[in-house]
């Protein structure tokens, strides 16, 4: 069973629909026991970093996520779900993230001709062979919607980068944690392949 963490963040339903399209069932829940008993877990979402952390903390889901990751079972963060895994974000000064991976979320710099947020398709530079990217074409195109990007502290955690005014960290993989800044559920056949790869990790 795959669980989707329900913390009233946007875009969760589209992830649920994409998984259903792949012939799998995802249970949308905030119940600790259900999450911990699942085979894999996904933290999707769009929105404000500080607001999201407050919702997670108020519901006790911050500790549930840490407990799930500690089991060693596959965990996937999507968009805001990637950002929340890290130390903190410039979007919400003083608010601590989940701290499961070291790094910071930074706002895109002001630059002529660069629209922020980045909205649309861009290609990835895959940096290491990780299960969620197996079978993808070279420099695959995926769909982004974000104003803030990841600056990971450990290069070895970075699974893919992307160019948008600067070179930024677009995906990570560390032990059983996988996360992507882009939206696989909105990334056509490439995104579905990434989700299918994740669902096949045991």
List its traits.
202 residues, 31% strand, three-stranded mixed beta sheet, Rossmann fold, alpha/beta, eight-stranded mixed beta sheet
Q: What is the structural class? A: alpha/beta
Q: Count of helical segments?
A: 6
Neighbour order of strands in the largest sheet? 2-1-3-4-13-12-11-8
User: What CATH first level would be assigned?
Assistant: Alpha Beta
DSSP summary, beta strand count: 13
By CATH, the architecture is named 3-Layer(aba) Sandwich
- Sheet of most strands: 8 strands, mixed
Strand content: 25-35%
Overall helicity: 25-40%
What is the straight-line distance between the termini?
Answer: 11 Å
Radius of gyration (CA) equals 15 Å
Per CATH, the superfamily is: Class I glutamine amidotransferase (GATase) domain
Poorly predicted ranges: none
**CATH structural fold name:** Rossmann fold
- What's the mean pLDDT score? 95
- Order of helical and strand elements: EHEHEHHEHEEEEEEEEEH
Shape descriptor: globular
Quaternary status of these chains? single chain
Number of domains: 1
